[in-house]
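Service request form, structural biology core

Requester: graduate student, group of Dr. S.
Request type: structure prediction, single chain
Budget code: on file
Notes: please return the result as structure tokens.

Sequence provided:
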Amino acid sequence: MTATEAETSVTAAPRRWDPVVKLTHWTIVGAVLANGLITEEGSGPHVWVGYALAATLALRLLWGVIGPPEARFSAFPPSPGRALDHIREIAEGRRSEHASHNPLGALMVYAIWSTLAAIVVTGVLMVAAPDKPRAATDARPFAAAALDREPPEREATGEREETGEREEAGEGREEEGPLAEVHEAAVNLLYVLIVLHIAGVVFETRRSGRRIVLAMLPGRR
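Core staff response, request fulfilled:
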């Protein structure tokens, strides 16, 4: 066996992922799909799926400290320099063995985790934010408001029109704001990262011969 064949054989060896890594990976996938395609934004199920996502992400981060060697952060530290070296390695057609994620994959993992954390934090803050009281919309003294009050008929008609406009525009304004904007931007970024992640998995599978997706399925090592 030549050196090249030996290197390819070592590189194509099956990667081992422990059950906790597999569980957290597919639970996060399921939560993202559920809240992206099934639940209604802001609904009870949407919020509870978000809580489940937060718990799963917390478990994976804890596992990165106390888990087996290939699951720990020390096995795939984020390093732009190593990622650039990996890109040069790909361009030159060379392959090397990585016990865990390769340098590019490591950057993607940390990017996805950071984005998920931003989604969870902003979502929790949005749920915890108190509703603004509607009674505080008119800050004028009662006497001043009474002086310029319109006749009852015109006032009733004006109130109905004004109430309808507030109901149409008020709900949107309640959910808009910095937190909602950051939450939406993070979700959109997550979708982009997921597409890049899938593309990277397909490319690395073809390049290295590793069955990356199969290795992440339950019951496989």
